[in-house]
Write a structure and sequence with these properties.
The protein has one domain. The longest helix has 20 residues. Helix content is 46%, strand content 0%. The termini are far apart. The chain contains 4 helices and no strands. By secondary structure, the protein is mainly α. Belongs to the WhiB family. This is Transcriptional regulator WhiB. It is found in: Cytoplasm. Acts as a transcriptional regulator. Probably redox-responsive. The apo- but not holo-form probably binds DNA. Pfam families: Whib (PF02467).
Length: 110
């Protein structure tokens, strides 16, 4: 399995992933084996999300997975499918803001 990509951070902060709770768990919990049955996948993903829920760097992990974007696994409490939905909503919202009549004029009027 390839090494996950990690965004650059300020040296004084240290890498966010060093504090990740999942570093102490089995990686198989976060990444699907090939041909995994649906019921097993859903159970594994819920278990991974429970680990994420108690992680102090969940938000940084999620941001990383959305910015990369990470195509596989549970990152920051979101599955790959959930991240695709979030990214699609972000793209749609960005397009709506660009197309909105008078976009940017509110800031100028303020």
């Amino acid at each position: 399995m390839p090494e996950p990509r990690v965004p650059a951070r300020a040296a004084e902060d240290g890498p966010w992933h060093a504090e990740a709770v999942c570093r102490r768990d089995e990686a198989g919990l976060f990444f699907a084996p090939s041909k995994e049955p649906t019921a097993a996948r859903l159970s594994r993903e819920e278990a991974a999300k429970r680990v994420c829920a108690r992680c102090p760097v969940m938000v940084a992990c999620r941001e990383h997975a959305l910015l990369q974007p990470e195509p596989y696994g549970v990152w920051g409490g979101l599955t790959a499918a959930e991240r695709r939905v979030v990214l699609a909503r972000m793209r749609r919202r960005s397009a709506e803001l660009r197309q909105a009549p008078g976009a940017g004029s509110i800031a100028a009027a303020g």
